[in-house]
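Ticket #4471: structure output looks truncated?

Reporter: J.K.
Steps to reproduce: submitted the chain below (413 residues) through the standard prediction queue, then opened the result file.
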Amino acid sequence: MRLRPTPRGIALGIAGIVALQLGVVLGAVDLVRIGTLTLLLVVGAAVAVGVLDPGRGKHRLSVQRHAVPNPVHAGEEAQIEVVITATDPAARVRLAGLKFAEQAATELSGGRPLRARVTRAPRRVTVTYSVQAARRGRWPLGPLVVTRGDPFGVVRTSATLGEQAEVSVWPAVVPLPTPSDVLVGEPDRVALGARSPSTDDASLRDYREGDDLRRVHWSSSARKGALMVRSDERAGMRPVSVLLDLPARATSLEWSISLAASMSLAMLDGGHPVRLVSGGTPAASPLAFVHDRSGPGARSALLDRTIDLEAPRSAVQGEIALVAAAHLLHTTEAGGEIVLAVLGPLGASARAALAHVADAALAWAVVRADTPAQEAEAEHTIKALRRAGWRACRVTPGEPVVDCWLRLLGSAQ
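Returned output as attached by the reporter:
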């Protein structure tokens, strides 16, 4: 709690002291009474406001905060509802007459005061407002700031209520077409595209992280002492790994993440198991494939992996992370999958690591040129990838994501 007098309270306090001293000096009883009453008014107001402080004592007010939607995509709005509830009659007295102000990160408020609508009920106050998610990340809301004044406007107190909440912001994504006839060739479609397999087509293999548990063959698993799944290639779709090379330049970072996220969702909507692999992702999370059979939670699981991605401190650190991510594809049995990569100009070690990816996977890449000076390096990277068996094209950060996607698919022609 922070208790402080208002300008009116300061003026009354000074006037009371002056009147009291003059009354004593001049022997004027009326001045002494006026000064004493004035000071009692200021002190009494401070005591009353302090007693009703909503942030202390056992009759505290409860605060619940809800954000819808949460997470929210960058560039979109979220509606925030803060409910302050009095749990007993004493808390109800504290609730009356309070003024409310909400705190939010600049990435949600834009640095401007939040415009809120306050709805009052006998035991409850509801504060609703909207925030604009400006940037991907995790941004705090709250705690709630409440102020109370006395009826004479002499003293004001302020306190904070409740805990901080968090709004998670996904990158902005763009709907992309999923032209499976381009990404998967005719021989692959014969093997992978059919949706009505016969039991003769089924075989068993060891369970790999990301496999659908509904395909576990329990009797064989019991005999072997290890999980076995039905490897029905005709009933499945090629798994897709989206490989993201995080740029060191902040201006290119959000655009690259948005492109990779849009690619991931497009392939997920097309029925492919998808995972997002990046050197900036926590070590355990990129290994698991996300399946569209998981329902709406599949999209959320993919997008959640992008929230905490950060730019590397330098281009050298970024290349080291990319090489580690490329090796990860080898160590998790990536053979036979589709790899979609969002890359920058590569050094020799990264080119060598990515060259081996195309040995066992259908590999596609967009190579960005962050600055005009990098265009020659980007072209050199594209040529090196194509020699290794990749399909690749050049893109410029900031251009429409759909254009980049269509240009990549056109590189197969």
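Triage note (M.O.): checked the attachment and the full token line is present. The chain has 14 helices and 18 strands.
Status: closed, working as intended.
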